[in-house]
Amino acid sequence: MIQYFKQAWTLIRQEKLFSSIYIIGTGLSVTIVMIVSIVFYLKIANIYPETHRDRMLTVSMATEKSTKGGYNSSAMMSSHVVETCFKSLKSAEAVTAELLTMVMEEGNFVQPEGSKEQLPVAVRHIDTQFWTVFPFRFVEGKAFTEADFQSGIPTVVMAESLAKRLFGSATEAIGKQLSINFRQFRVCGVVKDAPYVTRKAYAQLWVPYTAHSVFASSQYSFTQSLGFLTVCILAPSASAMEQVYQEATENIQRYNQTLTDLEFTVNGQPDRYWQMVFRGLSSGTVDFSGLLFFYGFIFFILLMVPAISLSGMTDSRIERRISEMGVRRAFGAPVHRLMGQIISENFLFTLLGGAVGLLSSYLLILLGRQWITQLGELVSMPPPEGIEVVFTPSMLLNLPVLAIALGICFLLNLLSSLMPAWRYSRREIIHSLNLK
Amino acid sequence: MFKSIIKQILNRKRSNAWITVELLLVFLLVWYMTDYFFALNCNYHLPNARHIEQTWKVNLARFPQNHPQYSAEANSGEVMEANFARILQTIRDYPGVEAVSVSNRNSAPESGALEENGYFSPDDSTNHVWGQLIRIDTKEDFFRVFGYTTNQGKTPVSISDFDWTNPNGVVVGRLVADRLFPSGSAIGKALNDNHTIIGIVDDIKRFDSERPRTAYYVPFRVDSTSLRYSVISIRSSSALTDAAFQAAFTAEMSQRLQIGNFYMQNIVSYRKLAKTGVFQSMMANISKQLSSLIVFFLLNILLCVMGTFWYRIQMRRDEIGLRKALGATGNGIRNHLLAEGLCLLTIALIPALLIEFQIVYADLNITLGRADDGRVYLPDRTALRFLITNGITWVMMATVILAAIWLPARKAAALPAAEALHYE
Are residues A138 and A276 in the same domain? Predict the structure, then answer.
């Protein structure tokens, strides 16, 4: 094996131009596949503060329709439904509800003291269970208490970066008053920033939803079932998710029996986290196997196009060494050993290409960070203005990502060298020898 | 020359098979995406009677009840309406503002919301024409703010061009008029049971990537209950840059527009909303992903062809030397190699066209905004579109192939005959 690698290394040095074309070719395909893999990793794997994505279930849009036909309405859920169907789940470790108001408001603004300019901010309206489902790291202070939440006290938890910008430091911020949409909120805690890719947890300010003006108003619920709440459920373990799903489905069935002439459905939710990512903004049922097939097909194409072009190049490269193979076979080398040599030689090329590809994929991800997380999504929102998308090193450089990179190299190598290796190593010795 | 190229391609059919399969696969993929972009680009170039350059959306909000400046008195209907009128007047008086309009929130450009209604002529109640319902305050000038035109873009329109004394008056888009009243003028004609067409404006596109669509403009009464669904839009003076206007307006008006319980949050240009809206950013996102794919596939072709030809030339040095010795020039040898590449592309083109034909036949191409409204645009002429998109794809691929062969071919052409013959 070492011998083969040495030989391959000599070959690379002998044919610099060809080798670099081949390595760049491999690097190119590894780059694109790595970008896709890393982006989906960022979307789906456990990342602070969504460290429990693997045992999280979500419900966003629900539908209410008349059993007699005609009426059909989709929106988020009312607090009545959230209490009866989800907050009551016995098999869940924690259930958090969030008030989504973007439907009603253009945006949220902070009025910094002594400044005319208003600052656009990302605000989440949440309950206390939120801090269990998403284990944020508190830099200073604490989350608002259950008592604060119940009485709708205007308190706010801030992201560290915003605290520094507005008050100078996290410590300074604690206990200060902050004007959000011309209402005063008391800062009770400062947390380490959540990256923009953690779509369920990301914000700059987190306030109890009971403090939102809409909560007290009559529009808080459209109907008995529909309103402004979405739900995140934390199962005690990944294997318990099925049980939580079953219980939630039963709860919804039971709830439906209390309705007259109406049917309430969550369209196959609660979703696993990855399902939520693929669901997008859809309020209907989603054909997940169709979606997986679609993404699988694209992934296959992304791998096949470079594999064929690399096969062609490998083919040419080996062709030049047919005579060498002829000699080796004439001296008794078996077919499988020659094949092994070609494949392992090729693996060195692919590994080098893989390294090039990994580096360039990091470079492209960092350069395109404002856009790259929208990759692979149809309906996706670009980050709001003034929001920098930040990737920490641990988000990019970690074991799963490296394993994926190595796996792709291996697959690509097999795809591109198996056919030529098989063909040339089985060639009649006479023909091979004759070529020189 | 052609004969000898074919012969040489056949001689190396193994290695050429790889390239051909790769060319075929990439040709199909690139063609499909080119076709999508072609249809999309045609839509972008269709005229739009609505011009959103230098237009702004003024975002107003109201103080919450527990705010110290909140006044219960200012929350009563009459006072609120009066305060809103004062806000409009203040904006109108601002020197950089050319026109002001108030409309229903869903009727503002780039909002993403869509309210539709169907109308028919009493003469033919079977012919319902559905269209976007655009509800505008007729006391303000919606048409001037958004630079509407009539007579195929020749005449600019103002709200005062139409007689709004009839509360059931409707201004329609040209497409509506043509479809409801194909013969004769639509102005003054009745719609449904009690509406009357009072004017015609040119057609608008809801989004830049779509085709012109049917639209109805109806009066929208702004009062204390409908205020929360209204939006103020303004046109800034063309003498000012967007950045300058936005900065100056925000600085001066933030304080002055705090009237009653209203306050101004910010102003956003419609040009920017056209980029950040859900649908618009989805379109941009798809375009970005598809064009990255095209670049990726073409790069693959570049490397594949370059690598294979480089090797091929290394192995054919003896042949090249022989030809040189027999009087071939460097240019001749280079052209021969380039022609060999184009020949391969043409061979791949034949099965590609057959497969593409199946795709077109099964109607799997994407044509955005195709509607059965009697208008035929360039992407609807299937044969012509097939020809154009294949032509574009062929040129793109050929350019990449020529670029890929250029470098190794130049090297081969520069090879001295004696040295090349040495390999023989």
Answer: yes
Q: Are B79 and B87 in contact (CB under 8 A)?
A: no
Provide the chain A residues 153-192 that lie in CB contact (below 8 A) with chain B: 181-183
Which of chain B's residues have a Cβ under 8 Å away from the Cβ of A311?
18
Q: What residues contact residue A54 under an 8 Å CB cut-off, 6+ apart?
A: A46, A238, A273
Enumerate the residues of chain A whose CB falls inside 8 A of the CB of residue B250: 117
Nearest CB neighbour to A312, from listed B19, B66, B315:
B19
Looking at beta carbons, which residues of chain B come within 8 Å of A374? 285
Q: Is residue A375 less than 8 Å (CB to CB) from chain B? A: yes
Q: Given this model, what pLDDT does residue B19 score?
A: 87
B310 in reach of chain A (CB within 8 A): yes
Range of the domain at A78: 74-284
Q: Is the peptide bond before A270 cis (omega within 30 degrees of 0)?
A: yes
Query: Which of B321, B308, B249, B424 lies closest to B16 in space, CA to CA?
Result: B308
Asked if A240 and A358 sit in the same domain, the reply is no
Beta pairing class for B124-136 and B215-219: parallel
- Reported as a single tens digit per residue, the pLDDT across B249-296 is 998 898 899 999 898 888 999 998 888 777 888 888 889 889 989 999
CA A228 to chain centre: 25
Residue A360 vs residues A5, A354, B229: alpha-carbon distances, Å: 24, 10, 49
Q: Which residues pair with B267 in a beta bridge?
A: B58
| Residue of A32, A12, A36, A17 lying closest to A360 (CA atoms) | A32
For residues A275 and A310, membership in a common domain is answered with no
Q: Is residue A68 part of a domain?
A: no
A265: tokens are 């459905």
Please write the tens of the pLDDT for every residue from B306-318.
Answer: 888 888 887 777 7
Judgement on whether residues A276 and A294 belong to the same structural domain of the protein: no
Residues A360 and A271 in one domain: no
* A42 lies in the same domain as A159: no
Lowest mean pLDDT across A220-224, A326-330, B178-182, B236-240: A220-224
Does A22 reach chain B within 8 Å, measured CB to CB?
A: yes
B-chain residues within 8 Å CB-CB of A32? 296
Among A266, A284, A302, where does a domain finish?
A284
A 53-112 → B contacts, CB under 8 A = 105-107, 109
As a whole number of angstroms, the distance between CA A184 and CA A177 comes to 6
Mark which of A224, A250, A284 sits at the end of a domain: A284
Q: What is the pLDDT of residues B157-177, one digit of tens each?
A: 999 999 999 889 999 999 999
B214 min Cα distance to partner chain A (Å): 26
Residue A55 lies in a domain: no
Q: Are A373 and A197 in contact (CB under 8 A)?
A: yes
Closest CB from A25, A183, A305 relative to B67: A183
Identify the band that residue A109 occupies on the pLDDT scale cut at 50, 70 and 90: confident
Among B11, B56, B300, B314, pick the best mutation site for testing chain A contact (most A Cβ within 10 A).
Answer: B300
**Do A295 and A250 share a structural domain?**
no
User: Are A131 and A271 in a shared domain?
Assistant: yes
**Residue extents of the structural domains in chain B:** 2-46+279-421, 113-230
Task: Please judge whether A118 and B314 are an interchain contact, meaning their C-beta atoms are less than 8 angstroms apart.
Answer: no
In-domain check, residue A140: yes
Q: What is the ipTM of this complex?
A: 0.80
Please check whether residue A69 lies inside any domain of the structure.
no
Contact call for residues A106 and B59 (beta carbons, < 8 A): yes
Domain count, chain A: 2
Helical axes A2-14 vs A335-367, angle rounded to 10°: 60
Query: Within an 8 Å CB–CB cutoff, is residue A273 touching chain B?
Result: no
